Amino acid sequence: MELAAAAALGKFIGAGLACIGMGGSAMGVGNVAGNFLAGALRNPSAAAGQTATLFIGIAFAEALGIFSFLVALLLMFAV
Amino acid sequence: MANTTHTAADTATEAAGHAAEAAGHAAQSAGMPQLDTSTFANQIFWLVVALIVIYFVLSRIALPRIGAVLADRQRTITSDIAAAEELKAKAVEAEKAYNQAIADARSEAAKIVAEARAEIQKDLDVATAKADAEIAAKTAESAARIEEIRAGALESVKDVANETAAALVSALGGSADDKSVASAVSDRMKG
Amino acid sequence: MATEEHSEGLAFHPMDQFIVKPLFGGEHVGVLTVTNVTLWMAIAVLCVIALFVLGTRGRAVVPNRTQSVAELAYGFVHKMVEDVAGHDAVKFFPYVFTLFIFIVFSNFLGLLPKAFTPTSHIAVTAFLAVAVFLTVTIVGFVKHGVHFLGLFWVSSAPLPLRPVLALIEVISYFVRPVSHSIRLAGNMMAGHAVIKVFAAFAPLILISGVGIAVTPLSILAITAIYGLEILVAFIQAYVFTILTCVYLRDALHPAH
């Protein structure tokens, strides 16, 4: 039973650690959005055409955060 | 996810339900339902059915219809704009014609006025000349009459003077023939 | 802080909402079993029919509200396909539109209380993503033959680097369906699970005094996250569609 308890402990610690990855993704998304805003304020006329690029960038940055969330979920529920 | 308004009774029944469920498929409740491979075939089957239905409904009915409506609208708008443009051009043309007509009428009127004035002036001139001539004729006639009257008057003065002189001479006791009296009178009247 | 309350009666089952259950009793989920997946997909299909077939029934030049919405969706996706994937991708427009509409309706219907979200399931999104991946790959090879492989051969890079880059490109090409599907399912699952976790805190006021503070907070959090989820429901459908368009562009114009 010691072993099972240790495994459970490891699972929860691992899930928590995996959630740190979401912070990185948050920084990435903020970086994308912030730089877009900075660029858009410099040249507002070009901003409208680049919103698709903005969303693609956000999606790529966010996907990695979702991966770490998935790892956390897998640790919590599937392992 | 939205069981935000639990009452105590609800919670109790839910808990009981969860317990029963957990007993029912213990393996499933423990893990993520997303990883329960036994349901994959079912989900994918219904997904394919749903996608095929949506695809055929959209591609056979909805999308051609919406595309046609949008094209129709575009065409209507374009033709309306063209019609409006045409009407505008017509209006401009009509305005031009109107202005032209007004200008024409104005110049025509001016011409008529000038003509009438010239005609009137001519008549007036003729009438004036005629009147002037008449007046001149009348004046000349009057002058002749006056002259005549004056001459007549002078003659009668001489007669009166001869008679008066003869009467005076006889009254003074003299006798004088008519001839000498007349010459004397005419001498006095000349002098 | 909730550990002792947890044991007393708070029920944390954030993942239970994703369970696939047969609608008419029974335990076994066979291929043809009518489940809650079937139900909510059917509702989505009915909504699509209501909006795009019944809503546009009038074919009015001056549209009513439903027809305006249908036209708005049409114009939105059509412009996206044309702008991102190029003019010759318009023949894939019904396919892309089907994906977009299915995901949008699944996402939004999933936000209804007690609803089931098909797009929160890896199986569903993986199928969609793999379908896109196969379509794109097949279209690429049919249109360009072997030249489609030029997508992986970065001719603008220095020659010694090209094999390395090609390896990276190949790996990223095959990771596409993975990220494509997990992004959608993960976003949906995460939002719904977070709402459920906060919802589990909401009845705390019935159990303990701490609930006087926690319950209003959790209800507030549910409201806020619900608003965020409405945004995410649309953005994820948009992102899925626009990435499909990007992949289509790569297939139609593989020149790097």
From TrEMBL, chain A:
Keyword Zinc: no
Ranges that cross the membrane: 12-34, 54-78
Record's keyword terms, sorted: ATP synthesis, Cell membrane, CF(0), Hydrogen ion transport, Ion transport, Lipid-binding, Membrane, Transmembrane, Transmembrane helix, Transport
Cell compartments where the protein resides: Cell membrane; Membrane
Pfam families: ATP-synt_C
Domain V-ATPase proteolipid subunit C-like: 13-75
Source organism, top-level taxon: Bacteria
Membrane topology: Multi-pass membrane protein
Site residues, Reversibly protonated during proton transport: 62
Similarity section: Belongs to the ATPase C chain family.
Database matches in NCBIfam families: PRK07558.1 (NF005733)
Known role: Key component of the F(0) channel; it plays a direct role in translocation across the membrane. A homomeric c-ring of between 10-14 subunits forms the central stalk rotor element with the F(1) delta and epsilon subunits.
Name used for this protein in its record: ATP synthase subunit c
Gene giving rise to this polypeptide: atpE
From TrEMBL, chain B:
Record's subunit section: F-type ATPases have 2 components, F(1) - the catalytic core - and F(0) - the membrane proton channel. F(1) has five subunits: alpha(3), beta(3), gamma(1), delta(1), epsilon(1). F(0) has three main subunits: a(1), b(2) and c(10-14). The alpha and beta chains form an alternating ring which encloses part of the gamma chain. F(1) is attached to F(0) by a central stalk formed by the gamma and epsilon chains, while a peripheral stalk is formed by the delta and b chains.
Positions of region (Disordered): 1-22
Family: Belongs to the ATPase B chain family.
Transmembrane segments: 44-63
Keyword line: ATP synthesis, Cell membrane, CF(0), Hydrogen ion transport, Ion transport, Membrane, Transmembrane, Transmembrane helix, Transport
Top-level taxonomic group: Bacteria
InterPro entries in the record: ATP_synth_b/b'su_bac/chlpt, ATP_synthase_B_chain
Protein name according to UniProt: ATP synthase subunit b
UniProtKB/TrEMBL annotation, chain C:
Main location: membrane
SUPFAM superfamilies hit by this protein: F1F0 ATP synthase subunit A
Keyword Cell membrane: yes
Lipid bilayer topology: Multi-pass membrane protein
Compartments it resides in: Cell membrane; Membrane
Annotated keywords: ATP synthesis, Cell membrane, CF(0), Hydrogen ion transport, Ion transport, Membrane, Transmembrane, Transmembrane helix, Transport
The keyword Membrane is assigned to this record: yes
Pfam families: ATP-synt_A (PF00119)
Domain of life of the organism encoding this protein: Bacteria
Function: Key component of the proton channel; it plays a direct role in the translocation of protons across the membrane.
NCBIfam families assigned: ATP_synt_6_or_A, PRK05815.2-4
Protein family according to the UniProt entry: Belongs to the ATPase A chain family.
Protein name: ATP synthase subunit a
Species annotation: Albidovulum marisflavi
